[in-house]
Amino acid sequence: MKPPLKFALYAVLYNSGDGIWEYEIYQKLKNHYHPRALSKLRSILLELHNKSWTDEVDAEVYGETIFRKYKLQERHREFVEYQLSPLNIIEELGLDQSMVEKGKVRNESIAE
Would you say the pTM of this structure is higher than 0.85? Predict the structure, then answer.
């Protein structure tokens, strides 16, 4: 059973220590969710940013479109880990298997 889109988004943000571009999130989730559901990704990301759950770590303008790179704020990592088990979601969706090793994230850029 696949998790709700918002939970998958939290898991992807949790697993990307240095942040992740909107289009990368879309690429990771496009094989698991209907395109209509994925059309809500940008609004969910903006909502999380407006509620101070994420930081915008970079932005690029291409034509009239702004692409943003988001990072989950450190202060929310423990809550996301406790509530959602993001590593289980990542494993269930088959995302970034190289980052998951026996329930631990192998990303040295994540502060302990």
Answer: no
